[in-house]
Amino acid sequence: MALDALAPDRAVSLDRSRCARHRCGANACSACIDACPEEALSWGEGGLALESGACTGCLACFAVCPTAALAAPGPSLLQVLAALAEHEMPVLGCSGRPGSEAHARLPCLGALAHSEAMVLCALVFKDGLHIDMTACNTCPNGHIAAKVEAAFDLMRELVPSPAIKLIRDPEALGFQPPALSRRQLF
């Protein structure tokens, strides 16, 4: 248990009761299996199975699951977005780059690799959101960046003039530390 605190689980968690294919034998959904670059998900006699040792936590499966049968470790996407909403120009980062400046973090930006997640961000953050992708080039899960960019491009077709920016250059990040309220001073 102490070891778990030192090395947190990067794997997604699986709730078979929410899996469309698991609930309905006639359903042939394989979106999560097809999306996983590590082949950590498979379908067997017991249903959908996750090999957590093979999962790198890129969240490609999480982003495409239509029934939320897969969950990312840590706070939910909605909790992260709520935390970001408290900032004038929020910066969203990833847990893979803990030393970077961000107002909130996802385990991996792969959670945004679906146009619906990007549309949600665009509608919530009408005044702007910077998504820090500066570490994607050196990250083991860097392959997910192309999917995040594709979701971003599709979102731009659906939402007129979104204020979201995918930031690749650290100089363009524009992080502003949160201001202290009067209550926080005392």
Describe the protein:
It contains eight helices and eight strands. The protein has 186 residues and is of the alpha/beta class. The chain has two domains: 2-71, Alpha-Beta Plaits (2-Layer Sandwich), CATH 3.30.70.20; 77-172, no CATH class. The strands form three sheets. It has a four-stranded parallel β-sheet with strand order 6-5-7-8, with helices on one face. Strands 1-4 form a two-stranded antiparallel sheet. Strand 7, helix 7 and strand 8 (164-167) form a beta-alpha-beta unit. Helix 6 packs across helix 7 (144-158). The longest helix has 15 residues, at 144-158. The protein is globular and about 55 Å long. The chain starts with a helix and ends with a helix. Residues 1-8 have low confidence and may be disordered.
Question: How would you sum up this structure in a few lines?
Answer:
The chain has 186 residues and is of the alpha/beta class. 30% of the residues lie in helices and 15% in strands.
Gap between N and C termini, in Å? 36 Å
Biggest sheet character: 4 strands, parallel
Q: What is the CA-atom radius of gyration, in angstroms?
A: 18 Å
Question: What's the quaternary structure here?
Answer: single chain
Q: Biggest sheet: strands side by side, in what order?
A: 6-5-7-8
Low-confidence blocks of residues: 1-8
What percent of residues are in strands?
5-15%
Tell me the series of helices and strands, N- to C-terminal.
HEHHEEHEHEEHEHEH
How much is the average pLDDT? 88
